[in-house]
Amino acid sequence: MKLPMLSADDKLAEIRALYFRTTRRSIQKDLTKALDLLKSMASEAERERATVYMEGMAQMRADWSRGKKKVRSLKSEV
How many domains, in total, are found in the chain? Predict the structure, then answer.
């Protein structure tokens, strides 16, 4: 099976799609895939276009992991 080469626009579209469909359960896997796509981009200009999605995913991961800690601490108080 031959794997297609993705253009910079295709990579950006995939990162954007990952951003919009990620969930609490899939965030780590999605962020890893997005980082791989980001690293494969040839220029800084291409990577800058993906910045907003990457920062958003990182923020979601932080918020969701912080939420888990709050739930655990609330359970231990009860």
Answer: 1
Q: Look up the domain containing 43 and give its range.
A: 9-16+26-77
Domain assignment present for 69: yes
* DSSP calls for 30-74: HHHHHHHHHHT-SSHHHHHHTHHHHHHHHHHHHHHHHHHHHHHHH
Angle at CA of residue 57, ends 23 and 49, nearest 5°: 135
**Tens digit of pLDDT for each residue in 10-38?**
999 999 999 999 999 999 999 999 999 99
Question: Residue 25 CA to chain centroid, in angstroms?
Answer: 12
Quote the tokens at residue 9: 């626009």
What's the pTM value of the predicted model, to 2 decimals?
Answer: 0.79
